[in-house]
Design a protein that fits this description.
globular, mainly beta, 0% helix, ATP Synthase, domain 1, 92 residues
Amino acid sequence: MKLEIVTPESIIYKGDVVSVTLPGLNGQFQLLSNHTDIISALKSGEVRIKLSNESEDLGSLKIDPADKSIGVYEIKGGILEMLTNKAIVLAE
């Protein structure tokens, strides 16, 4: 699936991913390829991205030292929209 993480200042990440785990208001949730369409508010926490390729350009993501295939980005809150196998995170 496609993922974009966007802040008011820049595009943090844009690319193909296997999955993304997000800090929802009622707890963490995960999106996989072909997830049903969803819009959700996000709270402060980590966005954890399972990358499709370890050598991929990570933009502003940090790598999880315990699993090099996971990119991590800390957010203060935001909104997620998943439509037609493309997830967009508008993050603070």
